[in-house]
Please model this.
Amino acid sequence: MGGPYEDLSGIKAARIQSVKRAHAVQLFKEGHYEQSLGYFADLETDPMEVMSLFPNLLPYDVRKQYELIRSGMPEHIPEEKAYPSLINFLVRARAALPPLAPNNAGGATPPGPSPADYTEFANVTNVAVFIDTVLLKAYSRLDDSRLASLLRLPNHVHVQEGRKVLMDKQRHHELVLLYRAKGMHREALELLAKLGTNPANGPLGGPTETIAYLKVLGRPQMQLIAEFSRWVLSSYPDDALAIFKEERVPDMRLPSDTVLQHLKQNAHQLVIPFLEHIIHNPSIQERGAEFHDELIFQYLDTVQALQKDRVDSQKKAFIPAGSEPGLLGVTRGKLLSFLEQSNFYSPGRILSKFIHSFQEETLYEERAILLSRIGKHDQALNIYAHKLHNYDMAEEYCGRHYNPDNEESRDVYLQLLNVYLHPPAGIAPMIQPAMTLLSKHHQRIDTPRALSLLPSALPIAQLQPFFEAVLRDTTRTKRNNQVVKNLLKSEKQQIHEQLIRARSRVIKVTDDRICPVCNKRLGNSVFACHPNGVVVHFMCLQTQQAQQQQAALSGSSGAGAKKGGGMMLGSM
Model:
């Protein structure tokens, strides 16, 4: 059966393992570290035993548990010679461990510290924690450039022990990576803030690292983002805006209302750039009225402040809105464009701001746009005509809003005429602009109503261009209508003749006439005649039409599904 031989085989394998193990231990004692640890790796030796061979890597209480293998080992080991082999061994041992879950959302939400991270290093029982922590120590003593590759990804490094090692080596960047991998964002940001406020701290001095860290956090960490962005907003506001403009996946996107309030409290100069970003960015496109209203309010406040700074000579000179020099022209241009293009703000709310916060004699163009949004065309036109004295803008306004199918907009030209002829008290009627308007746009103005608005003392000679235009247009319309009437009359006559010919049509069905569908005689059955003269059984026609309709519905045939228009039915 082979049982005894199997036992002997097992004993032999165990002896071979024992001999190789003893040989590996002897090689280690003799300083042949690469060969020794190669044997240990092949034998799948407990990593704890191998790590215990190296002094000052494991806690004393842990090392003494492996006195047997350490018997006769030297207490001093040349690190430069031995540690490369130890690192290779630990990397192989680490590869055999179960993988940690990857970070979510690009590393923004790591799994967090493990229970072992809150336990004294000497009391840890998880071998993976010892492997990663000892590997960290080996890297720090031999090749600290490799620390980042270990800490950037999820790892088992013991936080307290790792912090001690990295702080001793002044490896602050790597300590931040360790904190981030463990989900300890507060600790990482506190360290970055401490270092960032002093530019003398090299690469970590300044806001760059804090901004980069905050950019990978998201909605769940909004409180931390607000707390640790304050010092950056205070000292480096232009750079700090990148924190809140960073493109994040939908689930991690920062709440716009919270960010807005945060910026208003800590960096008011960033409110406009932030609102422009969330409104105009195609991936966000905030459509809430509160954001559109707020952007308009911010524009208005900025324009008002800049207008106060203008010298008196600049105020007297007329400059089109949005064309003023400097920041005033840029901001006002943005305001006018946004008022025209946005459909998501509340014009009534904005107008109430004008009433309570702005002088009556300012921002006429903006007022006119807002009045147009609530259908107050007469008030808007009054601004163009009597405040800005710009008749071209008034006519352009009418051209934009005229709609013959809309009750509120079909009389917009008539309203402008009324504004010209019936101005506010103290202003003379604008006869010449009114006459020009009548001549140019008489087709869009109700003539009887327009005549009723004209002053009774107006000389008839001034109305001559208007009457000529109206009469010319009326004559042309009458002539065109007469042509159309004659064409329709001719078409009617042709249709009537076609009807007579169709009704006088004769279909001759004899006893030997065959239905081309079923190839049977028509006999005395009900028949139908196609427009092309082909005669078929009425039942055959219905069957044929049903088949064609079914084919059309299934997409196999796009034509002829509804033949039979103009069919003639009959019976013998």
